[in-house]
Write a structure and sequence with these properties.
The strands form 3 sheets. Strands 1-4-5-8 form a 4-stranded mixed β-sheet, covered by helices on one side. It has about 400 residues and is an alpha+beta fold. Helices cover about 50% and strands about 15% of the residues.
């Protein structure tokens, strides 16, 4: 199973081919090793950096390639088909905070960070989730308090992807004495900031090579020039922006889900063609053929929805409805395809010496991060019906 290259421009097809070569020849052979060691694939990040893949979406004037969400998704699908952890090492570079800085950051912020994102010398994470603010992102309590010419940042963040490796963070916070969608904004914080406590991690089921950090900001100084979107009491602009800026990352998540599902499907097809039972290859059994048909349809359907979403542009970011549909379809395709593929491989699929059980573990995480499938359904229903139900108790 391959990405339909005939629907792409020659430049896009070349980009896919380059990413596919790296993924299959360099990433896939070592994916199990990084997963078992729960170790950041530093050498592979450096390889991706050298290949220019960290520079994909950085504007040309800051040393990047100036490509969009669509091209980033093409690359992420290929990388995830080889090694999900390696794809996630650049997800934040091409679809995360640098996109926000390029879109609404100051010229000083762009000059300070974007060239270093492009050359891979700085890694970013987005610090949004909190112990009591997951699906309800506007319940965050991290506060940015004025202090002389600058501010002080205090609060706790959790499940921050790549936090241990990151050099800088886009931190979502709020103005003092605000709640809910009122008074939300975001700031840039470097890893060495005073008051940032040692970052902790917790072992997890999948995506093991990309640790998720627990972060505690304790009266951290923030300069005025580090404020990307000022949190202002009485304003809901930050809450609206919080939702929009997440869409490139959600598209990237969908792309990685598709790459993961594609690998599981490829492995399953190869296996059922060579495995014989009852004197014939098991691919000839109708029950298994139907499973494969459903799996292939789910992968292709999710990709088409993603390509539609990645090509939309609403105030500089992919559309909410299109993105939510794409991520929902891709997350559920990854869960279904990896589970069915494991079953097709029988006990071999269950063994850790083969990659299938890792695919299943990784698929669950993609369906949680960046908005659960339940939350996505709420978003889609609101977009489709025009009836947006406030889940918050008032």
């Amino acid at each position: 199973m391959t990405t339909p290259l005939d629907e792409l421009t020659s430049a896009q097809a070349d980009l896919v081919a380059r990413a596919r070569t790296v993924a299959q020849e360099e990433l896939r052979p070592r994916a199990a090793e990084w997963d078992q060691r729960a170790e950041f694939p530093e050498e592979q990040f450096q390889l991706l950096r050298a290949a220019g893949l960290t520079a994909l979406t950085v504007p040309v004037e800051y040393g990047g390639q100036g490509l969009g969400t669509f091209e980033a998704c093409l690359v992420l699908e290929e990388l995830a088909a080889g090694c999900l952890a390696s794809a996630m090492t650049i997800q934040m570079q091409v679809n995360g905070p640098p996109r926000v800085i390029a879109r609404i950051g100051t010229e000083q912020q762009r000059n300070e960070y974007l060239p270093r994102v492009a050359d891979g010398s700085v890694c970013f994470s987005i610090a949004m989730t909190e112990p009591q603010a997951g699906s309800d992102g506007t319940a965050l309590t991290t506060t940015l308090t004025p202090d002389g010419d600058g501010f002080r940042l205090t609060g706790d963040k959790c499940h921050i992807t790549g936090a241990l490796r990151s050099d800088a963070f886009l931190v979502f916070c709020r103005a003092p004495d605000t709640t809910g969608p009122d008074g939300i904004g975001c700031v840039l914080v470097d890893r060495d900031v005073e008051g940032l406590q040692p970052i902790e991690t917790e072992p997890k089921m999948g995506g093991r090579a990309i640790a998720e950090g627990i972060m505690a900001f304790r009266d951290c100084p923030v300069r005025a020039d580090q404020v990307v979107l000022a949190p202002e009491k009485g304003s809901r602009d930050g809450a609206r922006f919080l939702i929009r800026q997440f869409n490139p990352e959600r598209c990237g998540n969908a792309a990685m889900s598709i790459g993961l599902a594609r690998s599981a499907l490829d492995d399953a097809i190869a296996y059922v063609k060579q495995r014989e039972q009852f004197g014939r290859p098991i691919v000839e059994f109708q029950g298994l053929q139907w499973k494969l048909a459903d799996m292939a349809t789910a992968v292709d359907g999710a990709r088409l929805l993603l390509w539609r979403a990645a090509r939309t542009d609403v105030q500089g970011f992919p559309g909410i409805r299109e993105t939510a549909m794409a991520k929902l379809a891709a997350n559920e395709a990854a869960l279904m395809v990896t589970s069915e593929a494991l079953q097709l491989l029988g006990h071999k699929g269950y063994l850790t010496r083969y990659p299938m059980e890792r695919y299943v573990r990784d698929a669950f995480g993609l369906g949680i991060g960046g908005g659960t499938t339940g939350v996505l359904r709420n978003l889609i229903a609101g977009e489709v019906t025009g009836v947006r139900v406030n889940q918050r108790r008032t």
